[in-house]
Input
Amino acid sequence: MKFKSEFLREIESRGFIYQSSDIETLDNLIFKKKITAYIGFDITNDSLHIGSLVQLMLLNWLDYFNHKTIALVGGGTTLVGDPSGKDTTRKIMTEKEISKNIKKIEKTFGHFINLKKGGSIINNYEWLANINYIDFLRDIGSKLTLNKMLTYESVKNRLDREQSLTFLEFNYMLLQAYDFYYLQKNYNCILQMGGSDQWGNIINGIDLIRKLLNKKAFALTSPLITNPDGSKMGKTEKGAVWLDEKKLNNFEFYQYWRNIDDVNVEKFLKLFTKIKLAEIKKLSKLKGEEINVAKKILAFEVTKICRGANAAIEAEDIANNIFNKKTNDDRLITYTVNKQDIENSYFTILDAVEKLNLSKSRSETKRLIKHKGIKINEEYFSSIDFSLENFALENELRISVGKKNIGILKIKK
Output
């Protein structure tokens, strides 16, 4: 359908909408006035990773069109653990661990929503911590049925595989429904957004609001973004792609986007940048080597949104120095190796430094590694077995010994 509201029109054209409830009524409402909406975030780590980036961008667009945004941090619900999309029970965390994580993540939210003008971070521990369990079961539990909960994919998938689903996790659905009810009642929040695996939880909240407040609320979910192999976006063989620069430096974050699969360029430009759609359409037509232009723009823009303009400039400068820097013979020394040789440890850092002529001998290379004298992509190399296996998925590696001895190792897939 053709939306009236700028917000829905923008996010629909960029591929954010997967499911929605009564979206025509929601559209008419948003067209007439500003609304309050929220997205919940579990706080299982001291940083969010790019698996949360679709949701953060939804908040960003909501904020852009001057609606009130709430980033709900699950100080209370994280103590329980969301079973949605999970094959096993989450590790139980302490209140102290969760509070510490929240303080570190608050900075990330500030990159996406204006906390001084309409945006807010709210912790559901404020109201969940003091709930009387008997009253909660009577007033809330009586309004939601197990029959309906058992139909949700997040539950069915676990039960179909005969994997345990604890009563603790079942309570999560009640708590999330109560969150939506509480935010509606106290903040006039009418819309909850989330990933497609949250559909059932959000619908529970809508039902609860209707039964207890006799008011209408809305759900909107976005598609889960996956890697080309079907795995969830957000993690690589080297680990999670963290949004916090203290957990992943700016250059490596930039390079993740610089090295994405060609088929994802247009989709990621739409989802993760604020570039106008007409410009994205032009960039998406680039093929072959020219597509690297689009990837560089993507990497810069995503880094700018997630880390700030200075971080994006820093990462871009490092990348340019690595891959464009000229030496006296007009180019950096390069060497190409097969990915399989790296994965099987037939080709190690010792071989790389030797082929790139960056040290006098293998014994000197070992000494340099021991004393933090060798870097790969601006990070000190310290593996005691000299393996490069953790870098096998990269396209190119910048290996440096000191500031002047630099070589490029190209990895042939």
Remarks:
- The two ends are 43 Å apart (CA to CA).
